[in-house]
Amino acid sequence: MASSSTDSSSKLYSAFSLAAALGAAAVAKKGLNTSWRAATGKNPPANPADPDVSIGEAVLWAAVSGTLIGVARMFAARRAAHYYAKSTGHLPPQLKKDGQDADKAPAAQS
Protein backbone atom coordinates (compact mmCIF):
# COMPACT_ATOMS: atom_id res chain seq x y z
CA MET A 1 0.00 0.00 0.00
CA ALA A 2 1.34 3.48 -0.87
CA SER A 3 1.95 6.02 1.81
CA SER A 4 0.03 9.27 1.92
CA SER A 5 3.27 11.10 1.10
CA THR A 6 3.59 9.09 -2.12
CA ASP A 7 -0.09 9.64 -2.90
CA SER A 8 0.15 13.40 -2.39
CA SER A 9 3.35 13.71 -4.44
CA SER A 10 1.75 11.59 -7.17
CA LYS A 11 -1.30 13.87 -7.18
CA LEU A 12 0.96 16.93 -7.23
CA TYR A 13 2.85 15.48 -10.21
CA SER A 14 -0.43 14.76 -12.01
CA ALA A 15 -1.65 18.32 -11.47
CA PHE A 16 1.71 19.83 -12.46
CA SER A 17 1.94 17.63 -15.56
CA LEU A 18 -1.61 18.50 -16.62
CA ALA A 19 -1.00 22.24 -16.15
CA ALA A 20 2.25 22.05 -18.13
CA ALA A 21 0.58 20.10 -20.95
CA LEU A 22 -2.37 22.50 -21.16
CA GLY A 23 -0.03 25.50 -21.15
CA ALA A 24 2.13 23.98 -23.87
CA ALA A 25 -0.94 23.19 -25.98
CA ALA A 26 -2.19 26.78 -25.64
CA VAL A 27 1.20 28.22 -26.66
CA ALA A 28 1.46 25.77 -29.58
CA LYS A 29 -2.06 26.64 -30.78
CA LYS A 30 -1.32 30.36 -30.67
CA GLY A 31 1.88 29.85 -32.66
CA LEU A 32 0.12 27.56 -35.09
CA ASN A 33 -2.72 30.06 -35.65
CA THR A 34 -0.18 32.82 -36.36
CA SER A 35 1.79 30.57 -38.73
CA TRP A 36 -1.38 29.47 -40.53
CA ARG A 37 -2.43 33.10 -41.10
CA ALA A 38 1.07 33.98 -42.38
CA ALA A 39 1.17 30.99 -44.74
CA THR A 40 -2.40 31.10 -46.08
CA GLY A 41 -3.46 34.70 -45.60
CA LYS A 42 -6.59 33.64 -43.72
CA ASN A 43 -7.65 32.44 -40.29
CA PRO A 44 -7.43 28.72 -39.54
CA PRO A 45 -10.71 26.83 -39.78
CA ALA A 46 -12.77 27.35 -36.60
CA ASN A 47 -14.48 24.01 -37.22
CA PRO A 48 -12.84 21.71 -39.79
CA ALA A 49 -16.04 19.59 -39.86
CA ASP A 50 -17.95 22.54 -41.38
CA PRO A 51 -18.86 21.65 -45.00
CA ASP A 52 -17.90 25.22 -46.04
CA VAL A 53 -14.26 24.37 -45.23
CA SER A 54 -12.58 22.54 -48.11
CA ILE A 55 -11.66 18.94 -47.35
CA GLY A 56 -8.00 19.63 -48.15
CA GLU A 57 -7.86 22.58 -45.76
CA ALA A 58 -9.68 20.62 -43.05
CA VAL A 59 -7.35 17.61 -43.34
CA LEU A 60 -4.24 19.79 -43.42
CA TRP A 61 -5.38 21.79 -40.37
CA ALA A 62 -6.27 18.63 -38.44
CA ALA A 63 -2.95 16.94 -39.26
CA VAL A 64 -0.73 19.93 -38.56
CA SER A 65 -2.53 21.15 -35.44
CA GLY A 66 -2.95 17.67 -33.97
CA THR A 67 0.70 16.83 -34.49
CA LEU A 68 2.07 20.13 -33.20
CA ILE A 69 -0.16 20.25 -30.13
CA GLY A 70 0.49 16.57 -29.35
CA VAL A 71 4.26 17.05 -29.57
CA ALA A 72 4.12 20.20 -27.41
CA ARG A 73 2.09 18.35 -24.75
CA MET A 74 4.52 15.41 -24.83
CA PHE A 75 7.53 17.70 -24.33
CA ALA A 76 5.77 19.47 -21.45
CA ALA A 77 4.91 16.15 -19.80
CA ARG A 78 8.51 14.97 -20.17
CA ARG A 79 9.78 18.21 -18.66
CA ALA A 80 7.37 17.83 -15.73
CA ALA A 81 8.59 14.25 -15.18
CA HIS A 82 12.22 15.41 -15.30
CA TYR A 83 11.51 18.15 -12.75
CA TYR A 84 9.68 15.68 -10.49
CA ALA A 85 12.52 13.16 -10.70
CA LYS A 86 15.13 15.84 -10.00
CA SER A 87 13.11 17.10 -7.00
CA THR A 88 12.30 13.71 -5.46
CA GLY A 89 15.09 11.45 -6.69
CA HIS A 90 12.72 9.08 -8.51
CA LEU A 91 10.23 9.03 -11.33
CA PRO A 92 6.56 9.54 -10.51
CA PRO A 93 4.65 6.28 -9.99
CA GLN A 94 2.78 6.84 -13.28
CA LEU A 95 6.06 6.54 -15.19
CA LYS A 96 7.53 3.33 -13.84
CA LYS A 97 9.63 1.32 -16.26
CA ASP A 98 7.48 0.05 -19.08
CA GLY A 99 9.71 -2.69 -20.47
CA GLN A 100 11.16 -0.71 -23.37
CA ASP A 101 14.78 -1.56 -22.56
CA ALA A 102 16.30 -3.09 -25.70
CA ASP A 103 18.23 -5.75 -23.77
CA LYS A 104 14.97 -7.00 -22.24
CA ALA A 105 13.02 -7.10 -25.50
CA PRO A 106 12.07 -10.54 -26.84
CA ALA A 107 14.33 -11.87 -29.56
CA ALA A 108 13.10 -11.33 -33.12
CA GLN A 109 11.53 -14.38 -34.75
CA SER A 110 13.24 -15.49 -37.96
Shape: elongated
Estimate the helix proportion, in percent.
55-70%
Termini Cα gap: 43 Å
Main beta sheet: strand number and arrangement?
none
> Number of helix segments?
2
**Number of DSSP strand runs:** 0
Mean pLDDT: 82
Give the topology string: H per helix, E per strand.
HH
Structural class: mainly alpha
Strand content: under 5%
Which terms would index this structure?
single chain, 110 residues, mainly alpha, 65% helix, DUF4235, DUF4235 domain-containing protein, membrane
Give a written overview of the molecule:
This protein has 110 residues and is mostly helical. The chain has one domain (14-91). The chain has helices at residues 4-40, 55-88. It is elongated. The mean pLDDT is 82.
Question: Helices, strands, pairings?
Answer:
Layout lengths: L3 H37 L14 H34 L22
Give a quick summary of the entry:
Residues 95-104 have a biased composition (Basic and acidic residues). The chain crosses the membrane at residues 58-76. This protein is mostly helical.
